[in-house]
Amino acid sequence: MSESSEAKLDRSSRAATRRAAEAVVGRLISLSGWSAIAVLTAIAVFLASNAWKALSDPQVGLIRMLTGTSWYPTSTPPLYGFIQYIIASLRVTGVALAIAVPIGIAAAIYISEFAPARLKGIAKSVIEFMAAVPSVVYGLMGVYVLGPALKDLFGMQSALTALSAGVVLAFMALPTIISISEDAMHSVPSELRQGSLALGNTHWQTTRKVIVPAASSGIFASVMLGLGRAIGETMVVLMVAGNSMELTWSLTTSARPLTAVIAGEMGEVVQGGLHYSALFVVGLTLFVVTFLVNLAADLVLERQRARWRR
Amino acid sequence: MSVQRNRVRQARAVEAAMKLVTGACAAAVMLSAAGLLGYLLVRGLPAMSWSFLTGMPLKDPPGIWPAIVGTFWLTVGTAAFALPVGIAAGIYLSEYAKRGRLTRLIRLSIANMAGVPSIVYGLFGAALFVMLLRFGLSLLSGSLTLACLTLPVIITSTEEALRQVPQDLRQASLALGATRWRTISKVVLPAAAPGIVTGSILGLSRAAGETAPVMFTAVFFLTGLPKSPFDKVMALPYHIYIMATQPVRPQPLVVWGSALVLVAGVSIVNVAAAAWRSRARKKVRW
Amino acid sequence: MVSTAETLARPKCGAFDLTDVSVAYGDEVALSGVDLRIEPASVTALIGPSGCGKSTLLRCLNRMNDELGNVTVSGKIQLDGDDIYARDVDPVELRMRVGQVFQKPNPFPMSIYDNVAYGPRTHGVPKSEMDLLVEDSLRRAALWDEVRGHLKKHAFELSGGQQQRLCIARALATRPEVMLMDEPASALDPISTQQIEDTIAELKSDVTIVIVTHNMQQAARISDRTAFMLRESMERPAFLVEVGDTRTIFTNPSDKRTEAYITGRFG
After folding, report:
1. Count of structural domains, chain B
2. Which residues of chain A neighbour B126 with C-beta distances below 8 Å?
3. Which residue of C has its CA nearest to A3?
4. Is the ipTM of this complex over 0.95?
5. Superfamily of domain A79-309
6. What is the pLDDT of residues A226-236, one digit of tens each?
7. Fewest beta carbons less than 10 Å away: which of A134, B70, C69, C151?
């Protein structure tokens, strides 16, 4: 079959168009691949540049902010010490983890190792539901239901305390901890499980001696991610923690964690002013802390993945 | 012999006890979720009425129509920005990227983006979109901010869905003289669509429920329906927050009604997406 | 524009000439020094123990090795006298001339019709000619009688053997000059295997076929020429031991190693 020169030309021009289109699409897609790096870098740059005014101010500066214990933007000179807010974040997050870690890991063990298949399916749906409920709704439950109940239970002065906020945050951290831990235990090869059972170990002995150690890095990562979620959560602490500026380690009094400071004051500051900039310093602090927590979780998860990859 | 039997009996007892303890923890979690849903229904259902859903906030009885509309448009805007970029980035990671340092860095960035607190996205959006780009407090600023927050979810679920598509199909298409992009667009993407759609909906519904990122970028507690992307809007989550914390004239019916609408909306969309995926999976099995 | 007659016209059968072909994965040379002519309008079988580079060699012929990345092919491979690794050759165009059928049936998740039409659509065959082309391809793959009237059915509803013949039809629809088959029947039951072999026998008059198989009987049954490949140790690359008329290779091979392999497998 001889091809007419016209058909040949037609074919080669189509090939050229196709190659060009292919190159353009490939370029666009590769560019999108960079989007995550670009956004993360942009966040860091914008936080830092907006924080710079407060950081470089001779009367404020990072050292005074991190060591000072009073936050009075309207005094002269203005005071932006926020160590009490950091402690408030620790109080609330501590309560949340103290509740969510043991309960979450235990629930994950039950779902992965003991629950019958049907119950497992239901449990997973319920956990997905818990993860999907917006944080403002959890805040609502804290304000109207959990806070008042805890006030009566512990005889607290107020319903809105570090303890109340911590308990609500625990509910929000639970889905993260349970689903990632359960995943880690579930992905332990079943030969290990059967090997242990065949040696005459009970299910519980197998879980304790084989499954949990094998899944330990995944479990650790789930705790870190739950921690990240609790530190960064805003609406719950804004609504439930009670917004007290006092420096204290008490759990039964009100608190004002870092996220609540930003959310509570950002709407009332002069944009571009010193107070505005100081809020970005708080934001930058949050960013760095959660970045480190997530980095730790990610590195550990990567190790876990590498372990079962063959 | 009997020593051994005793030991076994003891191990069995411990096992039963642990099963009980861990089961109780799981049950407690499940029950509190059920309690949350039940409480929302009990408090929220009495608020449900046509005038509540479609009325204006200052009327008597008050409605939440502008908040529903605002949340709807914020979510649509988020999808418009996050889907193209997120899906393209997922395609890059699954189909184009080679194993190496850059890919590792991208993955690390995605994991870390997912962990950045939502209020920090709010600060970022206020600094970049509201101030620097002068979009002001608007639907546009809010959508862009939420899009950044949703990006990691969409990238991850796209990549995962694409990886499920067997390598054979790509080879077959390439061997037929299809280019790489044609292979992806005609064979790989359609096959992965159920997973991508479900993951994206999950991410978008989370964005719809966010309050902190839109507080300083898009929402105002009382405003009309938006007429352009540069208008500020009301949003359900923020409306709930304002109504719940406003010291004067608390309106519990509005608060719980709005919360029920928000949770129901998010859950219905999620369940529908999951159902659609499992139906699509049944049809196409590798 | 191409006319209907041209769309359905059988292209000439292609012939390959391989001169001193070597393949390396990264630093490791997997295959070296292959000289081989693949005659047009015939079936050439590549045989040899697993890991002997049969599939690697096959993938050189339509440059599917390019997709693996990190693979270097040296030496010269000519299709009807054109160097297919020349700088100005687009692998995408090459693959229109050289089709491939894979080990496991891999229909696309779409209808039977769309599967067959996939290649032609890629290459701009007009819609008006598609029905005819799809029917012709399905007929040549001996699947038409089983699927006529059900062309809109999802390809996954076909049996394994039908799926593989659909994949053959799909490859035929781009009117290739050569068809590469990588153990096309190894995942199928005996009856489906029989059908595939019958299809191959009918096809070889209008398309050159190169088939990789580990099944000696199959090679003996369906091929005109047989090439025997071997990798003697992991330290040394695989190579082509000998190539010749199938009957000669199976009854009176010139190389001792060929004889050992064939008798070993038959015995």
Report:
1. 1
2. 266, 271
3. C6
4. no
5. MetI-like (1.10.3720.10)
6. 999 999 999 99
7. C69
Alpha helices in chain A (DSSP H): 5-33, 35-56, 61-67, 83-109, 117-132, 135-141, 147-154, 162-186, 190-198, 203-206, 212-214, 216-232, 235-240, 258-265, 274-308
At B268, give phi and psi (nearest 5°). -60, -45
User: Looking at CA atoms only, how far is residue C206 from chain B in angstroms?
Assistant: 18
Q: How far is CA C196 from CA B66, C54, C140, C141, C187, in A?
A: 65, 20, 11, 8, 12
- Residue B158 Cα distances to A129, B75, B167, C193, angstroms: 21, 19, 16, 38
Q: Say yes or no for a CB contact (<8 Å) between A110 and B30.
A: no
In a domain, B19, yes or no: no
Q: Cα(C209)–Cα(C16) distance, rounded to whole angstroms? A: 11
Structure tokens belonging to residue C47: 């045989």
Which residue in the block uniquely carries the two structure tokens 């390396």? C24
Q: What is the tens place of the pLDDT at every residue in C32-69?
A: 999 999 999 999 999 988 888 899 999 999 998 887 77
Residue carrying structure tokens 């999950």: B202
Interchain contact, B128 vs A123, CB within 8 Å: no
- Structure token pair of residue A43: 């966040």
Distance from the Cα of A4 to chain C's closest Cα (Å) equals: 10
Residue C152 corresponds to which tokens in the numbers above? 């809109």
pTM of the model: 0.85
Give me the domain span that covers residue C192: 4-262
CA of C110 to nearest chain B CA: how many angstroms apart?
A: 9
Distance between CA atoms of residues C117 and C119, nearest Å:
6
Domain enclosing residue B188, as ranges = 50-283
